[in-house]
Specification:
Elements: E1 45-47, E2 63-65, E3 69-73, E4 81-85, E5 103-105, E6 125-127, E7 131-138, E8 152-158, E9 187-191, E10 197-200, E11 219-221, E12 227-229, E13 239-242, H1 284-291, E14 298-299, H2 300-303, H3 305-314, E15 319-324, H4 326-330, E16 340-343, H5 347-354, H6 358-362, E17 396-398, E18 413-419, H7 431-444, E19 448-453, H8 472-487, H9 492-496, E20 500-503, H10 525-539, E21 544-547, H11 577-583, H12 589-595, E22 604-606, H13 613-616, H14 625-640, E23 657-660, H15 683-700, E24 705-708, E25 722-723, E26 730-731, H16 733-743, H17 755-761
Parallel strand pairs: 1-2, 5-6, 13-15, 13-24, 14-16, 15-19, 19-20, 20-21, 21-22, 22-23, 23-24
Antiparallel strand pairs: 3-4, 7-8, 9-10, 11-12, 16-18, 17-18, 25-26
Helix pairs in contact: 8-10, 10-12, 14-15
Pfam families: Cellulase
Domain Glycoside hydrolase family: 438-715
Protein name: Glycoside hydrolase
């Protein structure tokens, strides 16, 4: 899902040529012909014997098996089609000057001289086209040759040696194969009197009071297909939120540039930040001069990455899905310092006033913030040892006696800090540096992190598409580079492994992608998933990977496959033989053969994105309880229960772990600039949300994991967990209450309220804390 309406129908043009270079075989040491590498005419990709294959691996490309092999169905393997060796009856044998073809020899057959020993190749033996009579090994039954050397056997061997297809990186790969070192002075500790950053080295994302102590336990998918704690086998559940921004070139998760909380002339009234210049500075010129800071139009509450993450934790979320694009991670951040002087609100005020349900406040509840939820992230103001002297304060100034404006929970003095002082920027700093820093920090603060490759249209060319959806080799190269960089982090093995999930490609259906055919410039989804998964597992064999559905919602019109009415982008895992055949659905059976055949070792989660008709545009009849439950059952519900089969009608689908990667309903409230809870959804959408929550609980039980869309105030159809679009400061409590009462979310106050009050609110008996 995207910001704005965000679900843009665009085609993916293949702009990258994928040509697999074939290595020459070794020379025949005793008279056999040296194999000559070749590419069949018209083929842009050649598949290795026995390898998974596609007739059209990417748009505009022709895939071929070598001579003597054909891309055929192999029901006994984990793949739908492989390059299968043809039987002799289907081979071609062409006589040459060296081979009279008096004796046809099948591949791997003996083509040596009838004399045996060192007699060499049989001149009358004819190998199938694409094979030649080659020295193979010392004969085991012919004794020594006449010259005393070991005898040599000859067999019909392939004329070409192949490189693994997934190892071939496209020349258009967007991420470097290795991450350059982070330059010194890439962070800032202060802004000088001219508003320019004062540079310092970046702190480690683990260098804060919590260190790694808040990192949650590593997860795994167990043999029964359940998401569990790796060390104990205890059931695990993600209660998460999507936080987009990196994929739309914000160079950060969204909201860090939120504005209009300082009562500037261009903004509506209601700002909570003490003014720096309008109508006059709240601390006067003397206060500004003492701090040598003259602008502070931002605030920790909404503009500081670490503080926003803390508010998410206060609300009970334990997972964050970060949409991104590979192109954004490859950009240099020389012109994007995210630092600014900002108001440093009291932690207690942020929790008790801005992240506490006003309904409880109105009823007189005033719980104390439990120590387990206290802020323990990056320091405010910056006070890391060894930083330059120019980073020193002062950071406070008393309010003027005459000042009676907003104080944002500051008491008698203005308290300032530098928002995002710890985030890398500057010459030589890539988006990847900052992104990896943020991923590490979120894990350190108790979040599981889902890395969501989220292709979008180019803002300068709405018809351009991300090339990764068109070129499986490019997608594999980029995912391999990103995961390789991740696992090389010093903290990865001890504190991050099992806490980061790769979400391979978001809602590929909206680009026309189908499971089993290329369509509208998009490669077959089965190959996109297979090759990207393999590239990640080259870096980490047991990495957790989530996969969106695709190809069953009708978005690929003109490519042949039908649609299951009511199906949404990001959903589409139906393999039921009768349903696939009757509706002509794009068939994901390959996904399960390839990725789930060896059970828990594949470490894969299905990640559907259910949405109601108010967002998808389908007729409202498909939102009915019976229609929705049937659709979810066919797509992923039965697979989660281990009760489904592939489209052959025979092969049982191993029980699958399921993570709702996105969900939400249409919010029609006006969240443009009203600082309050503006949530408004229809009764029908409320009923649909209830149907989904009940179905999820009944199907997945304690294992139900979900990621609501979205934190962002600028989400065009669902709006956000915070709003409005100007300030991003106010929690939309209607949504949070629904998540608490129907989806198991546990905000901080559930652990602090008396048991009766917590139960009445919907927290459950005792208000069991998340931590």
């Amino acid at each position: 899902m995207e910001r704005g309406r965000g679900r843009i129908q665009i085609s993916c043009a293949a702009n990258v040529s994928l040509i697999l270079l074939l290595a020459a075989g070794a020379a025949n040491a005793a008279g056999g012909r040296k194999p000559a590498p070749f590419v069949l005419p018209g083929c842009s990709v050649m598949f290795e014997p026995g390898a998974p294959c596609w007739a059209e691996p990417a748009p505009g490309q022709k895939g071929c098996c070598m001579q003597g092999f054909a891309c055929e169905r192999d029901e006994s393997s984990t793949s739908r089609r492989r390059c299968m060796q043809l039987p002799s009856a289907r081979q071609s044998f062409t006589a040459t000057a060296a081979q009279a073809c008096s004796r046809r020899v099948a591949p791997d057959g003996d083509c040596g001289s009838a004399a045996g020993g060192d007699g060499g190749p049989d001149p009358g033996a004819c190998c199938a086209d694409g094979f030649s009579c080659q020295a193979d090994r010392p004969a085991t039954d012919a004794g020594a040759a006449s010259n005393g050397t070991a005898a040599v056997a000859y067999t019909c061997k392939a004329d070409s040696a192949f490189q693994p297809l997934a190892a071939v990186a496209s020349s258009a790969a967007q991420l470097p194969p290795s991450v350059p070192a982070l330059p010194s002075g890439a962070c800032s500790c202060r802004v000088n009197s001219s508003g320019k950053p004062v540079r310092r080295d970046c702190p480690s994302p683990w260098d804060h009071p919590a260190g790694a102590t808040r990192a949650r336990p590593a997860l795994t998918v167990d043999a029964a297909g359940a998401l569990t704690v790796a060390a104990t086998g205890a059931p695990a559940a993600l209660r998460g939120v999507n936080w987009f921004g990196w994929e739309v070139n914000d160079r950060n998760p969204g909201g860090l540039k939120a504005f209009c909380d300082d009562n500037a002339k261009s903004c509506p009234p209601g700002g909570e930040i003490p003014p720096h210049d309008y109508p006059s500075a709240a601390v006067g010129a003397a206060g500004q001069n003492a701090m040598q800071i003259y602008y502070w139009g931002k605030r920790r509450l909404t503009n500081d990455f670490a503080t926003v993450a803390w508010r998410m934790r206060l609300l009970g979320f334990n997972a964050v899905r970060l949409p991104f694009s590979f192109a954004a991670l490859a950009q240099e951040l020389a012109d994007d310092p995210p630092v600014t002087a900002c108001v440093n609100e009291l932690d207690e005020w942020i929790a008790a006033s801005k992240t506490f349900d006003p309904q409880l406040l109105a009823a007189g509840a005033a719980p104390q913030l439990p120590a387990a939820y206290a802020y323990s992230g990056m320091r405010h103001p910056p006070d890391a040892p060894g930083q330059p002297a120019a980073c020193a304060g002062p950071w406070t100034a008393p309010f003027l006696p005459s000042y009676d404006g907003p104080r944002a929970g500051l008491g008698s003095e203005l308290r300032l800090t530098i928002c995002n002082w710890y985030l890398p920027s500057g010459a030589g700093v890539l988006g990847l540096h900052r992104f990896l820093w943020q991923v590490q920090y979120l894990v350190s603060q108790g979040f599981y992190v889902i890395l969501d490759f989220h292709p979008t249209s180019d803002a300068t060319d709405p018809n351009a598409a991300d090339p990764n959806a068109a070129d499986p080799a490019l997608l594999a190269a980029n995912w391999g580079a990103l995961w390789g960089a991740l696992v090389q982090l010093p903290s990865y093995k001890a504190s991050m492994k099992g806490r980061v999930i790769a979400d391979l490609i978001n809602e590929a259906s909206k680009y026309g992608c189908q499971w089993d055919v290329t369509c509208h410039g998009c490669a077959a989804g089965s190959e996109l998933v297979a090759r990207a998964s393999d590239a990640i597992r080259d870096a980490e064999p047991d990495a957790l990977i989530s996969v969106n559905g695709m190809g069953q919602d009708g978005a690929g019109g003109g490519c042949g496959p039908g649609a299951y009415r009511g199906m949404n982008w990001g959903d589409g895992f139906i393999t039921n033989k009768k349903t696939v055949t009757k509706l002509g659905l794009s068939d994901p059976s390959f996904l399960f053969r390839y990725s789930l055949a060896d059970g828990s070792a594949r470490q894969q989660l299905l990640a559907p994105h259910p949405y109601p008709s108010s967002i998808t545009g389908w007729a409202s009849a498909y939102d009915s309880k019976s229609a929705a439950r049937k659709r979810w059952d066919l797509s992923w519900g039965k697979k989660a229960r281990g009760k489904d089969r592939l489209s052959d009608g025979k092969t049982k689908v191993p029980r699958a772990a399921v993570l709702l990667g996105e969900f939400g309903v249409l919010d029609t409230g006006n969240n443009t600039e009203v600082n309050g809870d503006t949530t408004a959804w229809s009764a029908a959408d409320g009923q649909w949300l209830s149907t989904l929550s009940k179905y999820t609980r009944s199907t997945l039980g304690a294992r139900a994991s979900w990621l609501v869309w979205a934190w962002n105030a600028n989400s065009g159809d669902t709006r956000g967990i915070v709003g409005p679009q100007t300030t991003w400061r106010e929690v939309q409590w209607t949504k949070v209450r629904a998540l608490v009462r129907s989806w198991g979310l546990r905000p901080w106050f559930c652990a602090a309220l008396p048991a009766g009050d917590a139960a009445a609110y919907g927290c459950g008996a005792g208000g069991a804390p998340v931590y």
